[in-house]
């Protein structure tokens, strides 16, 4: 019921992270950044087809938030989920291969960029329908509660999803039945090409939680430390109370909505202004200022990331396509029935 | 009431479903029922009457009017290890949840490369014939049967009402069960000692040699009546109850048509793009040389269901129209 | 060297137009810099470069519209970090797999139909059934070439063409009034004519015909016939035509090549001698049903069968085997006053025997000139299968056989 306004200025408010942890966060964000850049490159060469939605500029949200999510928790995300999948620990190679459409991809080439899944890491997708994954997150939390599993379902979605009925139905249901859902709204101020103030009568998203009796908080999504702190706080609350929580990250995407989007609805000035708050470069500066990051640290991280990405592309290039004969496998589960083991 | 000597019990269709629900809830702690008014109200069609008292609010969950959220939650709960039974009050309201059905329930397995199964059961009341007018009388089983990744069942008899639900709960993939609203009070018998018929198989409810009358759901009963009428007119009709629309038991259909050489498909849905059209196409494909006449269809007239009784009657398939359609093939 | 190509920026983008270069030759560019403005169907896009280095060449001119993947510029890379490598070209083998993958999946077989009771049902398409009805063909005897042995429209039509023969008039059956052919509609007649036309044109186009003729002394044969007919009731009397048919049938034993069929370059000797008899129909049009196994029938049997054929031909109730199974055709135009017939062979047969009218002619026997009743017998032969020598042997045999009519 309490609506906490977090500190929205870049984070002096967070206590000193250890050097190790700080470098980990930086590494995580750089991994996403370079992966997305490479994805854009190979997309323009026709290796990735269909839609590609880049997370560039929003890295602090996935990296920060996922610090609060344990391996036993569940993650539901959107079609802009590369950052979340990488941070969850799904190898860049199988994600790249998935986008190449190869059978070695995380979804055997059936899903592509918008439908990453990993059962072993409780990563439940990858949804192309805005708001489509939110009820599923509610259901996963419901199962946990009914099975007495003390864990959290993290549900990422954008500001656009907040306009969909499914968001409201889900918030209401999660609050009513007191389900451990961590609703994580990545507010990048645009629902595809329409600005928040043009489609929302009430633009304060975290305020909407009040109508459902859900605790909420807003945080600077360009600050990885602030994002981490807020996420840990929110997740703790969910774990302790078993009740849902809405955490709004105020962030911005530097690239267009997708590779096909000519980005005509934003001004260059606006984009440049937000680029001044690039989560990676601002974090780098802060770490340097505190003596937590040296040049050689950075170049080591960059090389490691570069190698990881190169290998990911090689892996994707080398992968085979699923034989057409297998097209109809996995439409249904083969009979006879295997018992559905929880947490498979 | 149960016959003391055997496992045969007389009951209504709704009681049969309730009996299956009870058995499932008792024997598998992962099973739970959720939907609008399934608890306190006892179910819009009184199917779940008494279950809240017996199993409590954790297992029998009244939901808000949020079809999309609670069908989606059913999917999530199934992914998370439960065996949810979601009751969507009627197929008319299920339209609000179609996104979750088509884009999630049906697709998750294939889309994820086979990583997930969604063992979800969704039950819905369906059909017209009770003067419920245009928004409460739909027959949309054919729309669901169109979607790969799910199963679609249409129990028309009391034993099927019971056993199909129990069988559906053993399926690893989503199963949609359509209960025609006019059947709930129908009386019949269940026999617990009889091995249940595989729910993917069609049943020959009446043997015949001159025309195959193929149908599903409540229209089975009108079709059987029509077969009696036809017999008086000298035409020996075979009646097939499809029972399961997806997967379709085409073998039973073709076997019948190869014997009778004539077929009429009876479907309460609107004629254009109806499930009957699919059955007709498959008969043409598989039994072309066995046909002595084109496959006929008896479906609803292409009109939003009218309220006035005589208009509703004129819209829906009737015994007389089924008989006529069959006679025209000779 | 790094290549900068026209990027694809959306699933449906196939080409782009370079509007302007943002950089020039010699400029240093960083990975991620905007290098050009490109126009697509939807919008103008700023395009980034993925390599770091110096622009060596700008290949395209502003205003050029090129397909996606076309080389636009070359960048000379200097000490770039490992991540900015060129993307390797896909190996051709993988490309093939990719193309294979995009091929539509094989159709899902439907469950096979349950087995039908044996011998009960003919597999015939509705179109074929309708045509068979109209052409007076019994489907039971048509061989189906469609899937699963189904009789197709073509099968019925082929069966119908087998019955047509070149110009003919019915063998005179004076005792019988010309019955109106039952069930032959104008429509059917038109179709029949078309079928004959097609067959005849094809025959002339494909078969290299040669023609031989001879004159046969029919005295013995006709005398024998007269004698035989005095012993028979009217309805069993023989016509001389059956003697001709029998002679032809037996002569084929001596030159069996003339009793073959030619199909796609293969000569297949027919086991039976089925002599097609040209019968013309009241409303026009021809039919040439076969007297099956004519060589093994007695002249009486031949006569009976011939009469029956004519009757059924006119009633439109011939069996399709009678229409499709002729191995050779005999046409007799004596009634028209024709002396010699130069007929067109009916494929896939390889020969046609024609007979003219019986005329009284001067004939030399033992140095004396006498009057004899003679008939001209001609052979049209398919030169791919036989030559004049064999044809001559055949005609000589027919002649010889007709000199001993009691042995026919």
List keywords for this structure.
heterotrimer; B: 330 residues; Rossmann fold; 2 domains; 7-stranded mixed beta sheet; 13 helices; 22% strand; globular; C: 408 residues; alpha+beta; OB fold (Dihydrolipoamide Acetyltransferase, E2P); 3 domains; 9 helices; 18 strands
SSE order and pairing:
The complex is a heterotrimer of chains A (344), B (330) and C (408).
Chain A: E1 3-5, H1 19-44, H2 59-66, E2 74-76, H3 82-88, H4 92-99, H5 134-146, E3 153-158, H6 165-176, E4 181-187, E5 190-191, E6 194-195, H7 196-199, H8 205-208, E7 215-220, H9 224-241, E8 245-250, H10 268-275, H11 279-289, H12 295-318
Helix pairs in contact in A: 1-2, 1-3, 1-11, 1-12, 2-3, 2-9, 4-12, 5-6
Chain B: E1 8-12, H1 13-27, E2 31-35, H2 51-55, E3 60-62, H3 67-79, E4 83-90, H4 91-94, H5 98-105, H6 108-111, E5 121-126, H7 141-145, E6 151-153, H8 158-168, E7 175-180, E8 187-191, E9 203-206, E10 211-215, H9 219-232, E11 237-241, E12 244-246, H10 250-260, E13 263-270, H11 275-287, E14 296-300, H12 309-315, H13 319-327
Parallel strand pairs in B: 2-3, 2-4, 4-5, 5-7, 6-7, 10-11, 10-13, 13-14
Antiparallel strand pairs in B: 1-8, 6-12, 9-11
Helix pairs in contact in B: 1-8, 3-5, 9-13, 10-11
Chain C: E1 2-5, E2 15-21, E3 28-29, E4 34-39, E5 44-48, E6 53-58, E7 65-67, E8 71-77, H1 92-102, H2 126-135, H3 153-161, H4 186-206, E9 209-217, H5 219-230, H6 240-254, E10 260-263, E11 266-269, E12 275-277, E13 279-280, E14 286-287, E15 290-291, H7 299-315, H8 320-324, E16 328-332, E17 351-365, E18 368-382, H9 388-402
Parallel strand pairs in C: 12-16, 16-17
Antiparallel strand pairs in C: 1-8, 2-4, 2-7, 3-6, 4-5, 6-8, 9-18, 10-11, 12-15, 13-14, 17-18
């Amino acid at each position: 019921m309490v609506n906490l306004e977090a500190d929205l200025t870049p984070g002096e408010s967070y206590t000193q992270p250890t050097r190790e942890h700080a470098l980990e966060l930086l590494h995580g964000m750089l991994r996403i950044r370079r992966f997305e850049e490479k994805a854009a490159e190979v997309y323009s060469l026709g290796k990735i087809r269909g839609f590609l939605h880049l997370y560039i500029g929003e890295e602090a949200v996935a990296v920060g938030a996922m610090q609060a999510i344990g391996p036993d928790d569940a993650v539901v995300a959107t079609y802009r989920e590369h950052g979340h999948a990488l941070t969850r620990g799904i190898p860049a190679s199988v994600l790249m291969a998935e986008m190449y459409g190869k059978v070695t991809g995380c979804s055997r080439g059936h899903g592509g960029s918008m439908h990453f899944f990993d059962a072993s890491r409780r990563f439940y997708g990858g949804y192309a329908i805005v708001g489509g994954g939110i009820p599923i997150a509610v259901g996963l939390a419901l199962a946990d509660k009914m099975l007495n599993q003390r864990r959290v379902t993290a549900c990422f979605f954008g500001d656009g999803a907040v306009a969909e009925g499914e968001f409201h139905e889900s918030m209401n249901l999660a609050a009513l039945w007191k389900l451990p859902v961590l609703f994580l709204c990545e507010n990048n101020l645009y629902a595809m090409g329409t600005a928040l103030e043009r489609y929302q009568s009430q633009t304060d998203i975290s305020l909407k939680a009040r109508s459902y009796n859900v605790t909420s908080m807003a945080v600077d999504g360009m600050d990885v430390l602030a994002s981490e702190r807020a996420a840990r706080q929110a997740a703790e609350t969910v774990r302790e109370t078993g009740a849902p929580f809405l955490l709004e990250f105020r962030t911005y995407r530097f690239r267009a909505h997708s590779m096909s989007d000519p980005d005509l609805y934003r001004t260059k000035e606006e984009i440049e202004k937000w680029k001044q708050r690039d989560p990676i470069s601002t974090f780098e500066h802060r770490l340097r200022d505190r003596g937590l990051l040296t040049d050689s640290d950075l170049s080591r991280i960059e090389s490691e990331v570069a190698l990881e990405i190169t290998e990911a592309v090689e892996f994707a290039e080398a992968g085979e396509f699923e034989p057409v004969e297998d097209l109809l496998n996995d439409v249904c589960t083969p009979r006879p029935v295997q018992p559905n083991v929880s947490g498979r | 009431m149960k016959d003391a000597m055997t496992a045969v019990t007389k009951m209504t269709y709704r009681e049969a479903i309730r009996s299956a629900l009870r058995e499932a809830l008792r024997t598998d702690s992962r099973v739970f029922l959720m939907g609008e008014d399934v608890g306190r109200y006892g179910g819009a069609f009184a199917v779940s009457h008494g279950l809240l008292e017996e199993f409590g609010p954790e297992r029998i969950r009244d939901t808000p009017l949020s079809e999309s959220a609670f069908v989606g939650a059913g999917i999530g709960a199934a992914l998370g290890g439960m065996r949810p039974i979601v009751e969507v009050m009627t197929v008319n309201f299920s339209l609000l949840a179609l996104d979750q059905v088509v884009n999630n329930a049906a697709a998750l397995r294939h889309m994820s490369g086979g990583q997930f199964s969604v063992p979800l059961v969704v039950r819905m009341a369906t059909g017209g014939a009770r003067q419920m007018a245009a928004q409460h009388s739909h027959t949309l089983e054919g729309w669901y049967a169109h979607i790969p990744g799910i199963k679609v069942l249409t129990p028309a008899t009391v034993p099927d009402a019971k056993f199909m639900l129990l069988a559906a709960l053993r399926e690893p993939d989503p199963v949609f069960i359509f209960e025609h609203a006019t059947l709930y009070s129908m009386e019949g018998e269940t026999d617990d000692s009889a091995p249940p018929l595989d729910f993917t198989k069609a049943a020959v409810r009446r043997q015949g040699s001159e025309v195959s009358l193929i149908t599903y759901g409540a229209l089975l009963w009108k079709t059987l009546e029509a077969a009696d009428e036809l017999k008086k007119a000298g035409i020996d009709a075979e009646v097939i109850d499809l029972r399961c629309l997806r997967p379709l038991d085409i073998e039973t259909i073709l076997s019948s048509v190869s014997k009778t050489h004539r077929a009429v498909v009876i479907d309460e849905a609107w004629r254009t793009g109806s499930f009957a059209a699919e059955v007709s196409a498959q008969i043409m494909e598989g039994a072309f040389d066995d046909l002595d006449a084109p496959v006929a269809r008896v479906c609803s007239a292409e009109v939003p269901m009218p309220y006035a009784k005589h208009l509703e009657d004129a819209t829906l398939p009737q015994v007389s129209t089924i008989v006529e359609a069959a006679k025209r093939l000779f | 060297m790094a290549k900068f190509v026209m990027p694809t920026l959306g699933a449906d983008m196939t080409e782009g137009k370079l509007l302007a270069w943002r950089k020039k030759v010699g400029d240093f560019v960083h990975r991620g810099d905007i290098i050009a403005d490109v126009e697509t169907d939807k919008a103008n896009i700023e395009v980034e470069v993925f390599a770091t280095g110096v622009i060596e060449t700008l290949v395209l001119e502003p205003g050029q519209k090129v397909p996606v993947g076309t080389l636009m510029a070359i960048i000379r890379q200097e000490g770039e970090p490992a991540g900015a490598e060129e993307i390797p070209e896909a190996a051709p083998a993988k490309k093939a797999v990719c193309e294979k993958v995009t091929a539509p999946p094989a159709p899902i077989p439907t469950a096979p139909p349950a087995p039908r009771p044996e011998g009960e049902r003919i597999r015939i398409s509705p179109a074929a059934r309708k045509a068979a009805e109209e052409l007076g063909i019994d489907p039971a005897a048509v061989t189906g070439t469609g899937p699963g042995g189904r009789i197709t429209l073509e099968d019925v039509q082929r069966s119908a063409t087998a019955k047509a023969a070149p110009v003919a008039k019915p063998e005179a059956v004076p005792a019988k009034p010309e019955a109106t052919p039952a069930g032959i509609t104008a429509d059917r007649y038109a179709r029949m004519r078309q079928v004959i036309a097609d067959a005849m044109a094809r025959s002339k186009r494909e078969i290299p015909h040669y023609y031989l003729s001879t004159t046969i002394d029919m005295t013995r044969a006709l005398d024998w016939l007269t004698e035989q007919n005095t012993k028979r009731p009217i309805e069993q009397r023989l016509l001389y035509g059956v003697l001709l048919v029998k002679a032809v049938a037996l002569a084929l034993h001596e030159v069996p090549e003339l009793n073959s069929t030619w199909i796609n370059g293969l000569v297949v000797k027919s086991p039976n001698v089925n002599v097609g008899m040209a019968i013309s129909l009241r409303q026009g049009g021809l039919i040439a049903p076969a007297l099956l196994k004519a060589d093994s029938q007695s002249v009486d049997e031949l006569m009976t069968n011939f009469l029956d054929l004519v009757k059924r031909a006119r009633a439109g109730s011939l069996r399709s085997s009678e229409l499709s199974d002729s191995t050779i055709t005999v046409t007799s135009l004596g009634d028209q006053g024709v002396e010699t017939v130069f007929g067109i062979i009916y494929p896939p047969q390889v020969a046609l025997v024609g007979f003219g009218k019986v005329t009284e002619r001067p004939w030399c026997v033992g140095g004396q000139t006498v009057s004899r009743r003679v008939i001209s017998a001609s052979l049209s032969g398919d030169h791919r299968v036989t030559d004049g020598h064999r044809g001559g042997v055949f005609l000589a045999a027919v002649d010889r056989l007709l000199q001993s009519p009691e042995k026919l």
